[in-house]
Specification:
The complex is a heterodimer. Chain A has 7 helices and 10 strands. Chain A is an alpha+beta fold. In chain B, 70% of the residues lie in helices and 0% in strands. In chain B, 47% of the residues are buried. Classes of the chains: A alpha+beta, B mainly alpha. Chain A binds chain B through residues 36, 39-41, 49-52, 66, 75, 78-84, 99-105, 107-109, 111-113, 116-121, 140-144, 210-211, 214, and chain B through 55-58, 61-68, 122, 125-129, 131-132, 134-135, 137-140, 142-146, 149, 227, 230-233, 377, 380-385, 387.
Amino acid sequence: MARWGMVIDLDCCTACQACVVACQAENNQPPPQAGQAQMGRSIAWMELVTYHEGQYPNVKLRILPRPCMHCDEPPCVKVCPVGATYKSEEGIVGQIFGRCIGCRYCTTACPYTVRYFNWYEPVWPEPMQKGLNPDVSIRPKGVVEKCTLCHHRLIKANDLARYENRPLRPGEYVPACVESCPASAMVFGDLDDPESEVSQLAHSRRAFHLLEDLGTEPKVIYLQEKE
Amino acid sequence: MSALAAPSHSLSGLGEDAILIEPIIRTTARFYLFTGFLLSFVLLGVVAYVHQYRSGLGVTGLNRPVYWGVYITNFVFFIGISHAGTLISAILRIVGAEWRRTITRSAEVITVMVLLFGVGSILIDLGRPDRMLNVVKHAHLQSPLLWDVCSISVYLTCSTIYLYLPLIPDIAILRDHTSKRRWLYRTLALGWKGTPRQYRVLETLMAVMAVLVIPVAISVHTVVSFVFAMTIQPMWHSAIFGPFFVVGAIFSGIAALICAMALIRWGYGLGAYLKPIHFNNLGLLLLVMSLLWLYFTASEFLTTFYGHEPSHMAVFNAKFYGPYAPHFWTMCLTCFVIPFVILCNRKTRTIAGTVVASISVNIGMYLERYIIVVPSLSNPRLPHEPAVYGPTWVEWGIFSGCFAAFVLAYALFTKFFPIVSIWEVKEGREKAVAEVSGRIRQYLPASPDTPEVEPDDEHGTTTPMVEVAGV
């Protein structure tokens, strides 16, 4: 059984936000309605987080692409009263949109604030409606949504592999953000496969987790910038 | 025996207690005016909720990361107030505090009525209220919210039974003395005739429920606090939260009870039943709770400050100096300074004084709930875009609607049932005076001229309730 994970090399990342846009397009995230972005209600499963370090004039800005961490010990899954969020056997933290009651307990429990809520019924401008991804369901108002590691792509790849009667090949299942990265800063794969690039990079000396001390065991691993 | 017991309920008439069923028989223009006033707020709440239901939670001021706001504050606050009733009444009954007789009913009603709005606040907060039955269908017992569901439903059931039991003899009085709603009172009186056996069963059941309801009440507010404490968010993840919330609940509960009693006393002219001594005693309890509140608050903030963990300090600073400082310092003023100054002085511990202190405490406790919920959320661990939470008219409309509906439900209760327990007052007059003096004599070393076996002596002369209640 694979344990899907992602490595993000901060030394390569140019903060171009291609991953953010790719994720929004792939996963049918509605653009914010007028005035909603200022209220902090825009939805972006993949987001750039900025850390300001030091005092003027020695200021350093660090930028981290931040998807869901897909924790091995997810604080969000524990608290959901209806089991609408779960960790799959392959380690993906998913959300059952059709079951979620919208209590937003998971959104408050997540220390990475990676969960988003549908404050209104989602609306797309006319030209964008044709571009919606038919593989991803559209969330109604009142439910929580989050990064699924493009789970629909895994289902598709698995189906194909089963049809061709062979195991899933490495690189066959890749989330949209990783696929779109022009700087190849993101690597995706099976963390349990010692041969995979992702697991080798995860053991690099530059590797670290976000908020490591919380013990959430994220499966998104960052590589520190080189000096 | 039965011949002795019979006069103790109906035949002798209500006499001086007739004023207690006055509100049920007659409704003044003032009451209708009051009802109309409350109904306008209820209407506002309904309009606000319909708007929210149709548009989505976007009509609130909530955002990411402040996913919870006024509704969750309302939930914690209303559940807190519910501790006024059942818990205080049960404790006073168990310890045999005789001054309880005129106040227990008004306390117990608060619990049952306000619990409905506590649960309602959670449902109002849901993004998908149409799916609320998923909580039963897909119950995930690991979630503290589900512990709430279990605990609160047990509490609501127990409190309702606990309110109903002592109501039965009074319903029988209404059945026998009024011509209104006879079918209702006949059904609810369960054939109460006031026989010694019936009294014995009733007293036993009340004693059992009083004991049973205490752990349930404690558990309710503990698991409400667990909703926050079980997460790992800064200044939520605290082991002190369970007892802290219970203390806060009893604190705001007593304050709510004092306000309700003052309203009843003023509205129905029950000055002879709800006397300054009752307000004085409850005021003393409120004073003790205010000190306990200070103790818990100080422990909570000092440990956070001393540990000085950055993520916790961000919340701490937001409360002490930041955007939530007005709320925080007002809370300190209204939860401690004002009630302490008023209540520790006998001269100001009057009815007016305790009411002022109680209103102050309730404002303060609402603010406390608010600054527990919001600042932790607005200061998440990861850097974020600054997003400020300010409740909208929808949230305030729903809050005022819920509050008005609670007061209205309470007022309507007083129109259906006596808000001061008639039979318990009568029992106090007829029996408890002798019983208490007997009890006091038991505490003291026997003097040579008094016989040792007091209770037996009274047994023959008064009502047979002594057998159960008099020990």
